[in-house]
Write a structure and sequence with these properties.
Length: 271
């Protein structure tokens, strides 16, 4: 279990802090498409960039991308390392603030979005469920006209070519998204090394995520004739074939971006 918060000690541990400009662009664009309507409808749409790292680029970029779909969105960058917060403060501007904290998410109102990219990579798999529950409890609750806030937690490579994330609402996990720069891909299973902590150790025979990546590779191989039209057309054909056996939750508009989103319950680890 992660440590408890105290008056002086936030919940969690300091991450490596590795960050690069534009690293989280695939995740941000998906968030804007999938969650933009919720952000637009809110009177005060607050998003949290949790564990933004040694430099504030990801928080700055998140604000820019969210405001393309929700002009009144605000972003709060939260870091557990006080030195990183101090280094980020010069980048404070209208709609963007930085605070010292961790999984307790020190914002006054329940956020409509918490993005936690490359944060849980260093944690043990057994700690993930407790962290998810804590963060989901901080989200804006669902209501008659809203599904509530969204937690997006996942992992990407150093320059953002390959990324896998889980989307969770106040009720828990909803979907898993695989996103890639298609020109960098030899096979869909190349994304296995970027599975989030909840799934990365489950990529073994007998587990659903292993079966999914196996079937994706087979669909990719069967779609080889489409490679003459480009990697995008091959990816789209492979994903279309996957829909026969897997609950794919998005459509061609997202597939064209080198993405596919699958219902969580289809990939969830076996008990």
């Amino acid at each position: 279990m992660p440590p408890r918060a105290t008056a002086t000690r936030p919940v969690g541990t300091v991450t490596r802090g590795t960050t690069n400009p534009n690293r989280l662009r695939r995740m941000d664009r998906w968030i804007a498409a999938a969650h933009g309507a919720e952000l637009r409808r809110a009177a005060e749409p607050v998003a949290v960039d949790l564990g933004y790292g040694a430099a504030p680029w990801t928080a700055v970029e998140l604000l820019h991308r969210l405001r393309t779909v929700a002009p009144h969105a605000r972003v709060v960058g939260v870091e557990i390392d006080p030195a990183r917060v101090a280094a980020a403060r010069p980048y404070t501007r209208e709609g963007l603030d930085f605070r010292h904290g961790g999984f307790e998410v020190p914002v006054s109102a329940p956020p409509l979005l918490i993005r936690a990219a490359n944060v849980l990579r260093q944690y043990d798999e057994g700690e993930v469920a407790a962290v998810w529950r804590r963060l989901c409890a901080r989200l804006a609750p669902a209501s008659e006209h809203s599904r509530g806030g969204l937690l997006v937690e996942g992992t990407c490579d150093e320059i953002g070519r390959r990324h896998v994330w889980v989307a969770l609402g106040p009720e828990g996990p909803r979907t898993v998204t695989f996103a890639t720069r298609l020109g960098s891909l030899d096979a869909p299973s190349d994304l296995a090394e970027r599975l989030p902590k909840a799934l990365i150790h489950r990529n073994v025979p007998g587990e659903p995520v292993h079966a999914f990546l196996r079937d994706f590779d087979r669909a990719w191989a069967a779609a080889a004739p489409y490679a003459s039209y480009g990697a995008r057309q091959r990816w789209m054909r492979a994903v279309r074939d996957l829909t026969a056996d897997w609950p794919v939750a998005d459509g061609p508009v997202r597939w064209r971006q080198g993405e596919v989103t699958v219902r969580w319950e289809a990939l969830a680890p076996r008990a």
